[in-house]
Amino acid sequence: NNWIMEDKNGKIWKYDLAAESCTCIKEYHAGAVNAVASSPIDHFSATAGEDGTVRCWDYIDQKCIYSKKFSNAATAIAWAPPSVDEKCRILCAGFSGGVIRVIMRGKDEWKTTFVCKPHNKRVTGVTFSPNGKTICTRGEDNTIFFLKVVTGSDNKVRLEPTGLQQCSANVLSI
Q: pLDDT of 102-137, one tens digit each?
């Protein structure tokens, strides 16, 4: 009497034929998962989806804790090292419109703390330096941006541009 269905938004539904009721039992990305990053100290992972969501996963409990929807596809993600935030709550995400967002893992939601738009096309990668003092982004516009990671007195992280490199082709990895 039960039917399991998947919709185009990444939700799995159970339809009870006898009760004529439908219940959402799982929710995933609607479309491709473009990037995954794991916390350097906790049992959390973050995924960046073509559907514009950034999701926080508890891989011990095997569930999505929460997600945040953005207007463009989330295309790249990197978790900051403990030198940026000793509790390792800070991530940097890139998006298809060329935007970079610094987001912080809260108890029950992602909080955006900084936004900039260094690229004219899709961001294809985000990498923190090992010491966490610099971030490098790369994009389909054949550019690489270097940004200084600055933590304010309010513990919010912001990025300050320090360099730009125009490349002759799309950079695949850093």
A: 999 998 999 999 999 999 999 999 999 999 999 999
Q: What pTM did the predictor assign?
A: 0.83
What is the identity of the amino acid at 69?
Answer: K
**Residue 141 exposure: Cα atoms within 13 Å on the Cβ side:** 19
Distance from C-alpha of 116 to C-alpha of 108, rounded to nearest angstrom: 24
The dihedral over CA atoms of 104, 105, 107, 109, expressed in degrees to the nearest 10, equals 80
Cα end-to-end span (Å), the chain: 52
Segment 70-108, tens digit of pLDDT: 999 999 999 999 999 989 999 999 999 999 999 999 989
Query: Nearest-5° angle of CA 47, CA 52, CA 58?
Result: 25
Nearest to 161 by CA among 172, 150, 169: 150
How far, in Å, CA of 100 to CA of 65, rounded?
A: 23
SS (H, E, C) 78-126: EECCCCCCCCCCEEEEEECCCCEEEEEECCCCEEEEEEECCCCCCEEEE
